[in-house]
Amino acid sequence: MATSTQRANQLTMADMKGRVDPDWCPGCGDFGVLAAVQKALIELQIPNHNVVTISGIGCSSNFPGYMNTYGMHTLHGRALAVATGLKLANHGLTVLVTGGDGDGFGIGGNHFVHSMRRNVDLLYVVMDNQIYGLTTGQTSPTSRVGMKTKSMPFGNIEAPINPISLALAAGATFVARGYSGEQKHLTELIKQGIEHPGFSFLDVFSPCVTYNHDNTYQWFRPRVKKLEDDSAHDPTNWLTAMEKSLLWGDEIPIGKFFERTDVPTLHGAEPVLDDGPLIHRGLRVPTDAARSFVEELM
Amino acid sequence: MAGHIHTVATDEHMEDGVLISDEFTNPVQRRAMMEKRMRKVTGIEAAVPAPALMGPRNADVTLIGWGSTKGVIEEACEILNNQGISANQLQIRWLVPLHGEAILEILRDSRHSIVVENNYSGQFARYLRSETSFVPDGHIRKYDGEPFMPHHIVEAVKEQLAGKTHLSVPMHEIMV
Fold this sequence. Notes:
Chain A is α/β, with parallel strands linked by helices. Chain A is 32% helix and 16% strand. Chain A starts with 12 loop residues before the first helix and ends with a helix. In chain B, 36% of the residues lie in helices and 15% in strands.
């Protein structure tokens, strides 16, 4: 983007901070994700007025309020639907969608699958804490079998979804997993996801220190292994990426599972947008006709 | 656009989009935002037309309906008028905001009022009562999954004007 170099090396953390501080619990994994997103934008030197952060509902969905970018705090599970519309209306913008596992995989499961299939050009960061935190601790779509919560006091009886496998199967063109406790690695993944042309899915382990006592920092730390440290890992190979996505236990891979750049983005494939973003084009309706139409609606 | 950054928020927020719904709250602003929202409701009530009576004034019976019953009540009124029972209809198109005073003004003059609605518990009659304190003389309800037909309403009106009941539940004829 031509405008991205306009203010090169001038953006600082202070430029990215919203006007209120997060109300997350002390120690929440989301702090690490917020910092990594802000750092990534600074390192890429994307002017904050060219960025939109869109979320649904949940602890992590207050994210746009803590960023100094354009923001939309939308309905539960609907962030990707709003983001798709926004990207088609003004595809010159960098679109970040943020939220949690409940919002994205539960309430918004439908939008998740179809946004990937459509290859909407955006970065979707899911702060995955494997629990519903805002509603004080119920089983979520990524809670492990047997996990005891307020809604399943005898242990979860439902198999969790595997977001990485699901994203690969649904046709996401960039699939990665990060960990809030690995700042540099996470920042790098966010940068790659922003720069990737197409749908970038980034599932981030973001421990809930208040309601999830199973999947803690202590639980993740010895298990997470970076795919980047595995010289045999080839992120262009979909089949091995799928195999790696199934690993869960003593070793859990984090990093970039898969990327392909040969699939057209939704806005790239849409012939109507060949002449540039819709937002910069005239209505092609006479001003007085447009005005009378608006007045009719009022 | 540079210099125009803001957040579009669904939670309570200030005029420039800053969230004030959680611990960063501001009781003065929150109250101002609530009052602003409620002023919009008053604005809508003034901007949309109040309901009006359809059919002859000073009729023997006023049928009150809302939504999909409009046409069938109109047909029932025609039949009743042809049979010498003058009937008119008050069709409510705006439920929220409800034009309570205009509705009361109309119903104050009605000789016999009946709410016609397609549900078991009289949802609209209850809502009308909670908003205006108006209690109708009778009810015609149907809850068999089928729509009203004109003769259902005509016969119910007749039995209610004859003082037989305050609640008619017409039986839907099965036509194969």
